[in-house]
Design a protein that fits this description.
Structural class: mainly alpha
Strand content: under 5%
Shape: globular
Distance between the termini: 97 Å
Order of helices and strands: HHHHHHHHHHHHHHHHHHH
């Protein structure tokens, strides 16, 4: 029986050809193959046999070319992935937002009176009159107690510990946990925090001679200490800036201003995501002052509920302005402004 043989390149040469090129060469070769010499065979039979042999030859060539397929022609999914990775979302991450300097300056002016609780009762104020070693421990204690607690409550707890001689690693280690619990009440989760204070005091005595850890990693290893607290302690106690201290106020305000995003999401989900996104573009000399600045702004103007957009001088740059339930004062201010126009 007469067989059709495709005059195709060697296997090594196939790797440099696309599947389309291989199929084209095969079809061209087969079109030049002579007809059967048997006059009894009809044209239909010849055509049918040729189609079967063409299909078989294409399959064989596909098997040869398959090992090199990924090098020759990427799948549709691969094109889609490359296109997705070059989207506008990824290019915008780490890029300074528009008008951020004007917004920051405007917030500074609104905060110039320094009348927010953080200005007089923030964690960085703890133990300010104590010697350096004792002050560092006081800042650590204050940071631990501040989690999910208002500055006024945290400040009161630290003051009671100080007045009762319980604001040092040695005193807390020797003190009764029930006494510590009563002194720090009503800070949030005071029972757990009293237990963590005892553990931290013992660690500081055993490993650091009554002082506190001087590295971010060691601070984060302490019970109850998270990134926000660790960065604050590094900034205030050791004057070593390794990151931005992001609490609930900073997290909320940065998202309202459209200053941060995570991947394709328009907002960050938690303070740690906000810290990472903010550090991508905010100049490092702003990393320390940004915390008390925005915390105080969040306590007085950009409050968690019913933000006072009407008295905010940077509302024109804020994509969230007047989109949340505003306070009655804000509504009055807004309506008054419209009358003047």
């Amino acid at each position: 029986m007469f067989q059709i043989r495709a005059t195709s390149p060697s296997t090594s040469a196939l790797s440099s050809l696309t599947r389309t090129q291989l199929f084209t060469r095969t079809r061209t070769t087969m079109s030049k193959t002579p007809r059967f010499l048997n006059p009894g065979v009809s044209d239909a039979a010849v055509s049918n046999g040729r189609s079967k042999r063409l299909k078989t030859t294409e399959q064989r060539l596909e098997i040869v070319a398959k090992p090199h397929q990924m090098d020759l022609l990427p799948d549709i999914e691969e094109f889609a992935y490359r296109n997705e990775s070059s989207s506008s979302y990824s290019t915008d991450i780490g890029k300074p937002p528009a008008h951020w300097e004007k917004v920051l300056e405007g917030i500074r002016k609104m905060r110039s009176a320094e009348d927010a609780p953080v200005d007089s009762m923030g964690c960085e104020k703890a133990g300010s009159a104590l010697p350096p070693k004792e002050r560092r421990f006081a800042v650590l204690v204050s940071s631990l107690l501040s989690s999910q607690t208002k500055d006024q409550v945290t400040h009161g707890a630290v003051q009671r510990l100080l007045q009762n001689g319980m604001l040092s690693a040695d005193a807390i280690d020797k003190g009764d946990e029930a006494t510590i619990k009563s002194l720090i009440y009503p800070v949030g989760f005071y029972t757990r925090k009293a237990s963590n204070l005892k553990k931290i005091a013992n660690i500081c005595l055993v490993k650091y001679d009554g002082d506190i850890p001087s590295s971010l990693e060691e601070l984060l290893s302490l019970p109850g200490i998270g990134p926000k607290m660790a960065h604050l302690v590094m900034n205030v106690a050791w004057d070593n800036v390794q990151g931005i201290c992001v609490d609930t106020h900073v997290h909320r305000i940065c998202n309202r201003l459209g200053w941060v995003r995570a991947g394709k999401k328009q907002k960050t989900s938690n303070p740690e995501e906000t810290r990472e996104a903010l550090q991508l573009w905010l100049p490092k000399d702003e990393w320390v002052p940004i915390n008390p600045l925005l915390v105080g702004f969040g306590q007085t103007v950009c409050t968690p509920l019913r933000p006072r957009c009407g008295v905010c001088s940077v509302s024109e740059f804020c994509p969230s302005a007047y989109k949340e339930t505003s306070s009655p004062l804000s509504k009055t201010k807004k309506s008054g402004s419209s009358k003047k126009l």
